[in-house]
Amino acid sequence: MWSLMLAIERKNEILEKLRQEQRVLVSELSVHYGVTEETIRRDLDKLEREGYATKTYGGAIWGNSTKSDLSYIVRNKTNIEAKRAIARTVASMIHNGDHIMLDESSTSLFVAKELKESKKELTLITNSVEIVMELRDVSGWNIMSTGGRLLPNSLELSGPQCHQMLRNHHVDKLIMSCKGIDPAAGITDSSEYHSSTKQTMLASAQKVILALDHTKFDKISFVKIADFRTLCAVVTDRAPSREWQEFFERLQLPCRFPEAL
């Protein structure tokens, strides 16, 4: 039992190191923990199966790749404090009685949790099964699900039925996230499913708030969602670099983060 607990503790420590440093080396971990490299490789095998890591030659990188999707279980355990900070800021931009859309992102789930504690009489449309379940006990709101085909890994509804429902409705604000932003590439995501749904949402919203944590800056994912000119605001968890702040200023695009409030 004690050796099993040590293995669990070691794996958790490796996971935390991956989150903080984005990559680990088998040789370094082997020396640090005083175990064989084969033992470390088994730890990394488990982390890869759980969706936290991608093994590379001689080590592994953090599994939150801009090119692929983590399961909703993993996403909801990643950057929790950052997402809570973003959610509080977004909630301050929503008014009682607003009609809003939320995408399927884990950031939007945290926004939903914050809104249900502070807002009244919202009409909310989402393609996220998780968000619908989170808000199932809220009274006085009008909660609408898009319908469509379920993508089990993300608990997202997608496909023609989802898009038709989104096109038939118009909202005050859309809150969405993405896998990466880049000044030249724009706003990008990991799959055509995600990007096409968000593009349909964009067309149905008067204002669009992009909510993303600091790790998404200077990242380019597989499919472009939109240009920055489609946004009314960017909300993040910490001050972006001076270059990014100047970029937003040139676009006259507000960027909100906790230190700026």
Structural notes for this entry:
With 261 residues, this protein is of the alpha/beta class. It is built from ten helices and 15 strands. The strands form four sheets. The protein has a seven-stranded parallel sheet with strand order 6-5-4-9-12-14-15, with helices on both faces. Strands 1-3-2 form a three-stranded antiparallel sheet. It has a three-stranded antiparallel sheet with strand order 10-11-13. Strand 10 and strand 11 form a beta hairpin. Helix 2 crosses helix 3, helix 5 packs across helix 6 and helix 8 packs parallel to helix 9. 34% of the residues are buried. The model has no long low-confidence stretch (mean pLDDT 90).
Radius of gyration: 20 Å
Count of alpha and pi helical runs: 10
Cα shape: globular
Side by side, the strands of the main sheet go 6-5-4-9-12-14-15
Short description:
With about 260 residues, this protein is an alpha/beta fold. Helix content is about 40%, strand content about 20%. The strands form four sheets. A seven-stranded parallel sheet has the order 6-5-4-9-12-14-15, with helices on both faces.
Name a few traits of the molecule.
10 helices, alpha/beta, 261 residues, globular, 3-stranded antiparallel β-sheet, 15 strands
